[in-house]
Write a structure and sequence with these properties.
The complex is a heterodimer of chains A (about 120) and B (about 150).
Chain A (H helix, E strand, L loop, with lengths): L2 E8 L2 E10 L1 H17 L4 E12 L1 H16 L4 E4 L3 H10 L1 H4 L1 E3 L2 H11 L1
Parallel strand pairs in A: 2-3, 3-4, 4-5
Antiparallel strand pairs in A: 1-2
Helix pairs in contact in A: 1-2
Chain B lengths: L1 E9 L3 H15 L5 H22 L7 E9 L2 E8 L7 H4 L16 H8 L2 E7 L3 E9 L9
Antiparallel strand pairs in B: 1-2, 2-3, 3-5, 4-5
The chains are: A alpha/beta (about 120), B alpha+beta (about 150).
């Protein structure tokens, strides 16, 4: 199953709602789209809503880690929200769960970002 | 009860999802838990992706072989490629290690396989290919009758 990404820009925040299956096959085109979007819209933060992401493997982790490193360089933050238990487990195993901000909803994630700015 | 399934498919990334679906369908008939089903899909995805990216450098004209077998609820999965092989298997299996930092890989593939399966063995020789063999005991089926 393909991975769909719905992107919404709110000021300097890029809100990404991912659904479907995020694997190596899907990661390539998404990486390019995100890179274009982030540069053209002067994005500083990302909120990842993974509520509808049914599958992810280490290729997906690589994609997210790559965007996280980019945000770190420009002083931005990444907030993870609503990941399913299976997806959450991968984040925990990789140690990324400890370095990302985690919130239960998009609204909470947005207010968390406003608070740290 | 014993059962097995073997399939060969082209080394193209489209087939990562197909391999996951085949493996999930194969074990679905043995009433796995949802967690087991998701573990199996993940490890198949990791091993097939490794074969395509690392074994074959993303050249799509090769073949990946997947062998699934089950005996007494012990599931064995073998993913084989005839690609370039792994130089240092121990190093490749370290968490966060990747031979392709240029590709933004997380380096978590083998760590995930070891975490989700009871046993992972890697047999590799240079220029001849790699076989990843993974074993997992599925939990007993709970009796569901009144």
């Amino acid at each position: 199953m393909a991975c769909r990404v719905e992107a919404e820009v709110k000021g300097s925040v890029l809100l990404l709602r991912m659904s479907g299956e995020l694997d190596h096959h899907e990661v390539g085109p998404i990486r390019k789209e995100l890179a274009d979007l982030m540069e053209s819209d002067s994005i500083r933060h990302i909120i990842l809503n993974l509520a509808k992401l049914e599958f992810m493997d280490s290729s997906g982790l690589g994609l997210i880690l790559g965007r996280y490193k980019y945000l770190q360089k420009i002083g931005g933050n990444m907030v993870l929200c609503a990941a399913t238990p299976t997806v959450k487990r991968l984040f925990e195993m990789s140690g990324m769960y400890k370095i990302l901000m985690v919130e239960i909803s998009e609204e909470r994630a947005l207010s968390r970002l406003e608070a740290v700015q | 009860m014993k059962n097995k399934l073997t399939c060969n498919f082209s080394s193209i990334s489209e087939n990562e999802g197909l391999a996951r679906m085949i493996a999930a369908s194969f074990i679905a008939q043995y009433d796995p838990t949802l967690g087991e089903l998701s573990d199996i899909k993940t490890v198949v995805s990791e091993a097939v992706t490794n074969a395509i990216i690392h074994g074959y450098n993303e050249e799509g004209f090769h073949e990946v072989c997947m062998r699934l077998s089950i005996d007494n609820r012990i599931l064995t999965i073998e993913i084989e490629d005839q690609g370039k092989g792994i130089n240092e298997v121990d190093q490749a299996m370290q968490p966060l290690y990747t031979s392709r930092p240029d590709m933004e890989r997380s380096g978590m593939g083998f760590t995930i396989m070891e975490h989700f399966m009871d046993k992972v063995e890697v047999h590799s020789s240079q220029s001849r290919g790699t076989v990843v063999k993974m074993v997992k005991q599925l939990s007993a089926v709970k009796a569901n009758c009144m």
